[in-house]
Amino acid sequence: MSVLDKFTVVDLIKTRSASVATIAGNILKFNNQTAAELNFAPFIQVLVNPKDKQFAIRACKEDAPNALPFSKPEGEQKYPIKISTAVVTDLIRKMAGWAVEDNWNVPGIYFADELALIYDVSAAYKPAAKGGWASKRQHEAASQAAMESLGDDGGENTES
Length: 160
Description:
The protein has 160 residues and is α+β, with helices and mostly antiparallel strands. The protein has helices at 32-37, 86-96, 132-153, and strands at 14-15, 20-24, 27-30, 43-49, 54-59, 68-69, 81-84, 104-111, 116-120. Strands 1, 2, 3, 4, 5, 6, 7, 8 and 9 form a 9-stranded antiparallel sheet that branches. Strand 4 and strand 5 (54-59) form a beta hairpin. The protein is globular and about 50 Å long. The N and C termini lie close together (12 Å). Residues 153-160 have low confidence and may be disordered.
């Protein structure tokens, strides 16, 4: 037994992200920065972690299980990406305890080594009116809260 067995390696890959996922009705929408952070991946998979109330997206190949069409190539992806799938939005709402009529923005945390983004629903905030400083400050505060919540145990190294 090593004196360092109770420690975890600091995750240097986890970084702030400009990605925001929006849950509205049966639509899961991602801002343009999300596509850029995933290198304009043409397909993604959606993953959930109900225990920690998180969901994630990761780039994948077209033939991967449950692959969803995502981004157009760089330079062609001009609008936010909308994925219309009740299965995913229902699962996220149930996990978060959100009503169907409520819309939520969830800031993402980028993991470069996995080409993935993790969204912690505890950091979600109500969409504000378009633009403005209040909206920017709200996003920054939520992003910081997401980083802190993932810092608690989200980056544990489980390898021996």
